[in-house]
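Q: I'm teaching a short session on how sequence maps to structure, and I want students to see two examples side by side rather than one. Could you give me a first protein with its sequence written out and its structure tokens following it? Keep the formatting plain so it prints cleanly on a handout.
A: Of course. Example one:
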Amino acid sequence: MLPLILAVAGTLKLAVLWQLHGHPLLQPRPGLDSAVYLDLARQVASGDLLAGTRVFFVSPFYIYFVALVLFVSGGSVTALQVVQVALGVLAVALVGRTARFWYGERGEWVAAGCATATGYLCFNDVLVLQSAVDPVLTALGLWLLLQAWTTGRWTTLLAAGAALGAHAINRPNVLAWAVTAVGLTLWIGLRPGSVVGGKPAGRRAAWSASALVAGLALVLTPVAIRNYVVAHELAVVSSHGGLNFYIGNNERADGAYRLVAGITPSIDGQMRDMRRVAEQATGHPLTDTEASSWFYGQAFSWIGGHPGTALRLLAKKVAFVFNAIDLPLNESYAYYATDESTLLRLLCVGPWLLLPLGVAGLWIARPKPDVGGMLRALWWPWVSFIPIYALGVAVFFVTGRYRLPLLVPLFVTSAGAVLTVWDRYRAREWKPFGVAVASIAVLGVATNANVGMDNGLSAWRAEMIVHDIGVRRDAEAQALLEKTEAGYPNRSLLLYRVGSAYLARGDAAQALPLFERAVSLAAGRPELELGLGRSLLGVGRAADALPHLQAAVQAEPRNADAQEARGLALAFQGRGTEAVAAMETACELDVRSATARLNLAILYAESGRLADARARAEESLRINPDYSRALEFLAALPPR
């Protein structure tokens, strides 16, 4: 039966890959994690085996995994996704074999079937993100630990340690579980009658734990050495832990990812800004690890000053981990499973079902007493991954991607819960049957409760609207806007984004009514006033545009775009001196603006300052050598 289930799993995963691999929102885009991983992997594949000269900011396992596949496949991202699909099938197989250990053949079928029918796994298989390999690394580590604890073979202990190490350098939240697993191995080795190592209890425990630690060190040590060699800093995995800890523990934290003042909300922005913000605060240069430590210090300072609030926040984050909602980061599963016509709509198993079944299964599906007590002795150490990993996520902040490894053991315990309920029903054991059903029902209500968080559906619809406008699919964009606007949490922001997309393609007439509606909802917002002013300028209504642009400049005097647009409006009104002053200010505020310099050149030329006009136009061309309007303007100027 398992081979058939795996064949179905592979077919479904490949079908989802075929349906989504060309989706415009899933293509690696500058600033997102996927683009950063691809860039680093290509760097490694092209010969830079150390991947730069800074401490790893992102988790290194996925960088080298991607690099290996790209090197072998000649740089094919599709090949990478196919390999990830294959690893996803392997994860299903390992889940099934682990469930067979606890519940026999029926458990294998149920657990593997649940994993196959979980759309969230199929979705992550096709992403260029480290979450694509989290399920197989989790399943492999947990399966190898069981084998190591029951057989005592040093090779299996070593392999289990290496698997835990690989998972830790892919998902650092696993480090707490890796350390705990060493302690659990010691405890199991000291247990009377344990088979681990075949030696007396004391030596057996020390020997088995040492083998596990050796496996961990085999993977973690090269990463630490690389970080020291390239950056002369001690870092076991990566340097982003302090910032992530601060994101989840500060006065504005709410349990999910939230913006940090001064930090660009992208991986490359975080890499750039983390040190800059910490250095500005301390007043002296910092290394990556020192900047991370500074953010840790800020978070711990807040926790120490607000212990009650911090504890309530931690409890809230734990509740998020065990809630059915998928908190998005980079990608919203809710969007692809709801709005796109893919198999994800049919693959309906997910946290909404696995959390109540799996958590209930921890107790109601625990193994019955067995000869020697081996199963009972290993059960709680093995399932302790669930609370320990959950806490490892909750101490930072919660997203669906970070929670993904938790689903792997929940497939197993969910299978146990299903079989327990079925067996109690068939045996007409009504009291334990009722207790089991009631516990699952109560947990179902708790884990599916509305916690007031956003699953990203509206935000990703907005992304699709902007994309459709960019490729001139206006009918589709308008239809999706009508579908999205009513339920969007911030309508003025949505209208601003859509209007800006029309302005970006040069269609002020389409943008104008959107900005008018946005300003009617949130008058005085400088970005909305600027957008409305630019739209009015674009349709030739400079007089109407000027008050809105004045308001934008008054609110944000250092906004170069607002100063430039105001300068244009003043010029169209025949107020040349004021226009020149505004445009000069725009050039001072944005030293990389080619358009502001050309507009200033035109204003200079109109006032007879030809030498200054030529100089500003030449500056514009140095910034943008392909700027055709600047070339035409220079060609039209009289000779020197």
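Q: Perfect. Now a second example for contrast.
A: Example two:
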Amino acid sequence: MTNSDTAPPKGLDALDAESQGILQRVFGYREFRGLQHDVISHVNAGGNCLVLMPTGGGKSLCFQIPSLVRPGLGIVVSPLIALMQDQVSTLKELGVRAAMLNSNVTSEDAAATYRALRDNSLDLLYLAPERLMLSETLTLLSNLKIGLIAIDEAHCVSQWGHDFRPEYLQLSILATQFPDVPRIALTATADEITRKEIVEKLSLQSGRVFVSNFDRPNIRYQIALKDDPRKQLRAFLASQPTGDAGIIYCLSRKKVDETAAWLRKEGFNALAYHAGMNGADRARNQSTFINEEGVIIVATIAFGMGIDKPNVRFVAHLDLPKSIESYYQETGRAGRDGLPATAWMVYGMGDLVSLRSMMAQSDASEQQKKIEQAKLNALLGLCETTQCRRQVLLRYFGETPPSRCENCDTCLVVVKRWDGTIAAQKALSTVFRTGQRFGAGYLCMILRGETDERVARFGHDQLSVFGIGKDLNDKQWLSVLRQLVAAGYLNVDVAGYGGLMFTDKSKEALKGSTQIFFRDDPTLLIPSKEKGRSKNTRVRVANYGADTEIVTRLKELRLKLAKEQRIPPYIIFHDSTLVEMAKAKPKTLADMREISGVGDAKLARYGEQFLAVFSDSSSPTPDRTMDRGPLVRTIAR
């Protein structure tokens, strides 16, 4: 599909027209989204750039289409083998000549790829950074016509990013090794510090920075305090349509295993994934999640990067992530197809203690620890806010958000605040009087006037603060202490035993010179009167207004074809494409061609089989209004 190297150079208008044609013929989309057109036009013209675009925003088209437009081979650098496999399989389904080289590729497949490279018969080559940096690989590529170099997951180059990969630092050689080849770096999440480091490390100072809108309006954000996490998770899963695929994140491997086992006992198709598992078991569970429908994967953050499964309907966190960047990227794995999805999380004081302890004990520099602490504090602000959560999230990434999103828990249910100035003074006094070395549970006992062997031994039942907080119960005091930590009025002694200590802000609050408001923690995470969702409409929500029976039959056909070819079902068609089919009820191949996501290759390969779902007979009459011949010829040049 690659353009001839001897073809005369084309003007920008011609390149734009060709890009639009490829978008429609190959990928089956009628128009570009967001900044896609601007990025593609810039790269087509030979420009370097950094692209920040949310997960599901269509980053891959920003380098795939220029690779098909520009003369030569498109090189894609990725640290994620699963992502390579997924994108290469998808491109092959579209008739694009794509291949990959990484540690999982067999020697036979690698040899075939090298032959294809020498024959100039590839459009795109996906490479792990380690493979790219091999001298033999660089020598081979230097003798080929290279159209562009794309560096995916570019945040991996930054030590301040949430997924630093040392091998990415070697990619700085690309600027000198291939000075005339446009380079495009892409990532879904990067704050200002990370962006600057990406530009510096990859020598993109002369290029443009494209920052897309970070809003994912199809995702509903729900965050609540941990009460009974399993009970809360069970209630959340019960609110979701039966058979939805989802990801549940836990902080520890032990918790992953225990949660997955518990969910299976509860009747869910749940599998575990973490780095401590046997490699074969881990790979099998990931493959099952990708290739089957309705699977829930319970995982540490080791899972998810490079997973392109578009119909993940929810991402749940049973523990607090490290930063807003991590939270945004992990929750962004839900609803990549643009259909409604949910990001659900519960958190508590124990999460803060665990994360701050991990940060304190890490080998990172003091500067990096301070940055990580600031990132965690920003995430706490998102958790504790009484404002629209989407506003807080988007402001963090430098965007001006709408007034209210009406698709997060704080918009759907008004969150009450109460004047906690006096309660804060009582709590801070108790922290001070007990020596700033006890945890929240013990402090609650002192505030409530409860005693045990420890209280008697330390003589804290004789303190003036003993029993001064009988007006609030244990849960309310735990909430007060947690929110004082989140607001910076208290700190956690991570070097000791998790005791609460004063900060620079503590004394001003203790004096009462600052009015402090606390969030009234909700007891339920699932509002009983959610807009657009209720138990009576779960089936309707599952199919988004389309005929349920037809969607089911389309999914069954897709699954059958996918199993025959041993590929994930979504590589054939996304759920959103099936829903659009079910609504449009196409009668001819010409009708089918108007469905978003149906390009020429897929129309030729699957069109008649999917049309049969809408026909009374099993074999629909072929559509003679279209000239079928050119369909394949336009793709396989």
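Q: What should students look for in example two?
A: Point them to this: Confidence is low (pLDDT under 50) at residues 1-8, 524-541, 617-637. Also worth mentioning: Residues 561 and 569 are 8 Å apart (CA to CA).
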